[in-house]
C-alpha cells in the first residue's frame, strides 16, 4: 500500500465484509473468511465486539506454518521439532562465536547480523511448530510467560522461583477480635512478643463496632421502631460497651482506647443522622473533661490517626463494618461504616 487510495479501498472493503457478516448474524472470526482477509480485517479493526482479541500475528503465523509443515514434510511430532530447534540454537551460537573470535566476516561485514537474525528466526519457527504439535497456542503461551517475567523482581528474587512459601509476611488482619492465646502465638511466630501479650486496643475497637451494630439492631427490634444514639437505653448500651472493651487494656493504652470508642459512638450517631453537637454534648457531659470545641478537635485528630492506621486494611477490600438498620421510611439500610466516615463524618 503505497498511496492513500489503496488504503481507502482496503478500508472500505473491510467495512463491507464486517457489515455483511453482521447482517447474516455471523461473527467476524478467522473461520468466516480467508486467513489473508482475516489478517487484513484484524489490522483495520484491532479490537471490536466481533474481534475482542484484536490482531493475533502469532496465531495466524502458527496456522500458516502448520500448513507449510504438512505440505513439505508430512506429519511430525514434538521430538522432531525439539531436535530442529536445538540444531538452530547451535547455529545461532555458532555465528555469535564467530563474531566474537573475529575468524571471518559475515555476508554483510563483521557483525553477522543477517546470519544471527536468520538462525534466531528458525529457532522461533521450530518453537511455534513444537507448540502446534502439543496443541498449544503460541501467542497465548508467549503472552502469559511475558506477563510473568515482567512481574518478577529479579533483584530480590534472582532465581525466579516462587519463594512466597519461605518468605515471612505479616498476616493480614481478619477483622475479628484475637484471643489472648492467638495474639500470643502470632507475636511469638513473628518475633514481636512484648512483655504484655493482651489484645491490643485495635482489636477491642474492631469488636466494639460489631457490638454497637448488634446493640442498635437489638434495641430497634425491641422498640419496634428506629432508634438513634442518645435515645433511651441505646446510649447506655454504648457506654457499657465502651467500659467493657477498655477495662482489660493495659493502663497506658486505656485513655487511647476510650477516646477511640467514644469517637466511634459519635460517628455512629452522625451516620444515623443524629445531631452531631447533641451527641458530643452527651460525651462531654459524661466525661466532664472537655469543652465542645476541644472535643471536636480531638475527634478530628483521632479520625485522621485511625484513617492513617487503617489504610492498608481498607485497601485490602475488607470493610471494617456494615451498619444494618432501618431508615426513617421503614426501609432496611446497610451502610459501609468506613466509607460513610470518609465521605461525610466531618461535614458538620
From TrEMBL:
UniProt cross-references to Gene3D superfamilies, sorted A to Z: MazG-like
Domain NTP pyrophosphohydrolase MazG-like per the UniProt entry, residue ranges: 80-152
Pfam families reported for this sequence: MazG (PF03819)
Family matches, as InterPro entries: MazG-like_dom (IPR004518)
Region Disordered: start-end pairs: 154-178
Protein name according to UniProt: NTP pyrophosphohydrolase MazG-like domain-containing protein
Amino acid at each position: 500500500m503505497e498511496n492513500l487510495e489503496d488504503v481507502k479501498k482496503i478500508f472500505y472493503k473491510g467495512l463491507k465484509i464486517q457489515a455483511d457478516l453482521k447482517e447474516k448474524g455471523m461473527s467476524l472470526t478467522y473461520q468466516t473468511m480467508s486467513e489473508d482477509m482475516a489478517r487484513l480485517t484484524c489490522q483495520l479493526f484491532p479490537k471490536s465486539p466481533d474481534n475482542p482479541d484484536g490482531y493475533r500475528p502469532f496465531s495466524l503465523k502458527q496456522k500458516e506454518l502448520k500448513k507449510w509443515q504438512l505440505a513439505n514434510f508430512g506429519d511430525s511430532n514434538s521430538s522432531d521439532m525439539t531436535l530442529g530447534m536445538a540444531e538452530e540454537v547451535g547455529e545461532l551460537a555458532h555465528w555469535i562465536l564467530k563474531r566474537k573470535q573475529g575468524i571471518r566476516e559475515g555476508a554483510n561485514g563483521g557483525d553477522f547480523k543477517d546470519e544471527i537474525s536468520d538462525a534466531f528466526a528458525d529457532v522461533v519457527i521450530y518453537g511455534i511448530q513444537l507448540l502446534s504439535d502439543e496443541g498449544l497456542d503460541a501467542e497465548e503461551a508467549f503472552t502469559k510467560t511475558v506477563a510473568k517475567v515482567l512481574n518478577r523482581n529479579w533483584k530480590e528474587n534472582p532465581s525466579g522461583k516462587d519463594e512466597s512459601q519461605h518468605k515471612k509476611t505479616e498476616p493480614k488482619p481478619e477483622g475479628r477480635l484475637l484471643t489472648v492465646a492467638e495474639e500470643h502465638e502470632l507475636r511469638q511466630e513473628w518475633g514481636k512478643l512484648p512483655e504484655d501479650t493482651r489484645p491490643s486496643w485495635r482489636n477491642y475497637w474492631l469488636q466494639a463496632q460489631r457490638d454497637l451494630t448488634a446493640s442498635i439492631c437489638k434495641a430497634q427490634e425491641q422498640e419496634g421502631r428506629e432508634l438513634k444514639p442518645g435515645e433511651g437505653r441505646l446510649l447506655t448500651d454504648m457506654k457499657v460497651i465502651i467500659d467493657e472493651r477498655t477495662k482489660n487494656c493495659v493502663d497506658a493504652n486505656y485513655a487511647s482506647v476510650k477516646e477511640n470508642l467514644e469517637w466511634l459512638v459519635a460517628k455512629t450517631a452522625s451516620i444515623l443522622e443524629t445531631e452531631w453537637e447533641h451527641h458530643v454534648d452527651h460525651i462531654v457531659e459524661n466525661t466532664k473533661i472537655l469543652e465542645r470545641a476541644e472535643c471536636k478537635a480531638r475527634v478530628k485528630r483521632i479520625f485522621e490517626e485511625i484513617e492513617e492506621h487503617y489504610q492498608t486494611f481498607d485497601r485490602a477490600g475488607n470493610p471494617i463494618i456494615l451498619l444494618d438498620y432501618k431508615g426513617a421510611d421503614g426501609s432496611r439500610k446497610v451502610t459501609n461504616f468506613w466509607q460513610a466516615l470518609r465521605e461525610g463524618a466531618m461535614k458538620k
